Amino acid sequence: MSDNGHGGTLGGRVALVTGAGSGIGRACARALAADGAEVHVVDLDGAAAERVAAEVGGRAHVVDLADPGAVGALPAQVDVLVNNAGFQHVAPLPEFPLDTFTRMQQVMVTAPFQLVRNALPHMYRRGWGRIVHVSSVHGLRASPFKAGYVTAKHALEGLSKVVALEGAARGVTSNCVNPGYVDTPLVRAQIADQAAAHGIEESEVVADVLLRRAALKELIAPERVAELVRWLCGDHAAHVTGVSLPMDGGWTAA
Length: 254
Ligand code: NAD
Prior knowledge:
It is a single chain. The chain is an alpha/beta fold. The protein has a single domain (14-182, 220-253), classed as Rossmann fold (3-Layer(aba) Sandwich). The protein has helices at 23-34, 46-56, 68-72, 98-126, 147-167, 185-198, 202-210, 222-232, and strands at residues 14-18, 38-43, 59-62, 80-83, 129-134, 172-179, 244-247. A seven-stranded parallel β-sheet has the order 3-2-1-4-5-6-7, with helices on both faces. Helix 1 runs parallel beside helix 2 (46-56) and helix 4 packs parallel to helix 5. The relative contact order is 0.15. The chain binds nicotinamide-adenine-dinucleotide. Nicotinamide-adenine-dinucleotide (NAD) is lined by residues 19, 21-25, 43-45, 48, 63-66, 84-87, 107, 134, 136, 179, 181-182, 184-187. Belongs to the short-chain dehydrogenases/reductases (SDR) family. It comes from Saccharopolyspora hirsuta. InterPro entries: NAD(P)-bd_dom_sf, Sc_DH/Rdtase_CS, SDR, SDR_fam. This is SDR family oxidoreductase.
């Protein structure tokens, strides 16, 4: 394995990143590949997955993570697993569609569980593994109208801690990263919806609605989240396990 000078060498390691066709997942695929990992790029959007896989020299897998059969067929020989894929739906509880709620749990909780279960035997055999879950401040705090998302992210936090406890003696770490609002298509869609709903400028939505609870009134670049994910995957982070690391501009400090 080559040393890249900042302790984050991933040469010889195989990574699998879900939702790697866009936003934070794509940034993670790029960061892990830059550190030498071979990357499995998993996404529902086939064209996006192919593009990112070609860019990072990895392999694309076009999969709907709500389909347990398709998830079960993904590669299990992975050393680094980044459970990133997710989506948002905003609605008051009495109107929150049951099928959307269920799909959110499938994509953001059940698929991560399945992928962890698939990968652990290989990680245990090698005595080394890194599992990172892209949670959210909404894994630690609630907001109204986001029942499906907040429920799923809180569940992911629980899963991560159990993996940390079971994996510790086998060289496997499991952690969550908890971003505030990141500048990705997922958030851009929310900004446009809110601006239309309230009849205000998109800049006002960012400052007064989305970042109301953050001390730092800026959207986060996806590359910054990916940098934290990459850091957690280094050998230096062997003792960092079972934690949740907010990158939220001070939101959870208040
Ligand atoms: P994004 O919409 O840019 O990317 C999400 C990717 O996941 C897309 O490429 C999409 O095709 C894929 N995906 C969605 N459903 C899928 C499914 N069923 N099967 C396979 N792939 C699927 O979003 P993003 O902002 O990069 O979000 C990535 C993760 O980060 C999500 O889990 C999200 O909850 C979390 N997050 C985002 C923010 C933010 O502000 N953007 C903040 C905190 C946490």
